[in-house]
């Protein structure tokens, strides 16, 4: 029997640490934490991103994490906490679950970039076209 997205999110919530925007602000100041934006590059072009975050589009995440992949990104091999975020927190929760299963220490930013921006936190503005 197939499961729906809500069940997938519930299972991920049971496995993955979630952090609020306030916790995220404190974590961002630490050297042992990497923020990972999994949104589509078009979303970043429209909305900006959290300063210092790495872009890892959701469709490439597993390949970028795996050191055996030709697409591996070395920052994923660092012994750090990876805080994943997307627009609202759903995609990043599922991405964090996958990354955790692949051996990373992870957290998911509850409410995603949307809550971050609404809270008045620092963002890099998109480049004008």
From TrEMBL:
Domain Rhodanese: residue ranges: 29-125
GO molecular function terms listed in the Swiss-Prot or TrEMBL record: thiosulfate-cyanide sulfurtransferase activity
InterPro entries in alphabetical order: Rhodanese-like_dom, Rhodanese-like_dom_sf
SMART domains named among the record's database cross-references: RHOD (SM00450)
CDD domains reported for this sequence: Polysulfide_ST
Pfam families: Rhodanese
Protein name as annotated: Rhodanese
């Amino acid at each position: 029997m197939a499961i729906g997205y809500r069940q997938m999110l519930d299972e991920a919530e049971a496995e993955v640490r979630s952090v609020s925007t306030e916790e995220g602000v404190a974590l961002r100041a630490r050297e042992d934490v990497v923020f990972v934006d999994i949104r589509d590059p078009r979303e970043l072009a429209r909305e900006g991103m959290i300063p210092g975050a790495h872009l890892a589009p959701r469709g490439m995440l597993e390949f970028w994490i795996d050191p055996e992949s030709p697409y591996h990104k070395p920052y994923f091999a660092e012994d750090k906490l990876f805080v994943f975020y997307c627009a609202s927190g759903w995609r990043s929760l599922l991405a964090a679950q996958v990354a955790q299963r692949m051996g990373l220490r992870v957290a998911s930013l509850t409410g995603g970039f949307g809550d971050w921006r609404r809270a008045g936190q620092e963002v890099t503005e998109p480049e004008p076209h």
